[in-house]
Design brief:
Blueprint: E1 5-10, E2 18-25, E3 28-34, E4 42-49, E5 52-58, E6 66-73, E7 76-82, E8 90-97, E9 100-106
Antiparallel strand pairs: 1-2, 2-3, 3-4, 4-5, 5-6, 6-7, 7-8, 8-9
InterPro entries: ARM-type_fold
Length: 114
């Protein structure tokens, strides 16, 4: 059916296992990309509408836990980047418009507060 398509792409390279690409409608697309490298676990890329996109990128390296990247509109972008290194806690990066940008970066090192 034009609105239902499934692509299963298997790669035998040690660091790339499977790419599953399923489309149920032009406005609904899901991409699941699994990598077997020890420091990269899963990349899930889901799009429900041209103006709504979510990217969840999970890394198992001890110093990098999770990257969640959500975009609801071209002019609104949020990046939440959590790091478990003792000296870097959380970086929240929010952009409301190309000309307006705010960066909140918290560091736990004794010599740098916020």
């Amino acid at each position: 059916h034009p609105h239902v398509m499934t692509l299963l792409f298997h790669v035998t390279h040690p660091h790339v296992t499977t790419l599953l690409f399923h489309v149920t409608h032009p406005h609904e697309m899901t991409l699941l990309f699994h990598v077997t490298h020890p420091h990269v676990m899963t990349l899930l890329f889901h799009v429900t509408h041209p103006h709504v996109m979510t990217l969840l990128f999970h890394v198992t390296h001890p110093h990098v836990m999770t990257l969640l990247f959500h975009v609801t509109h071209p002019h609104v972008m949020t990046l939440l980047f959590h790091v478990t290194h003792p000296h870097v806690m959380t970086s929240l990066f929010h952009v409301t418009h190309p000309y307006v940008m705010t960066l909140l970066f918290h560091v736990t090192h004794p010599h740098v507060m916020t």
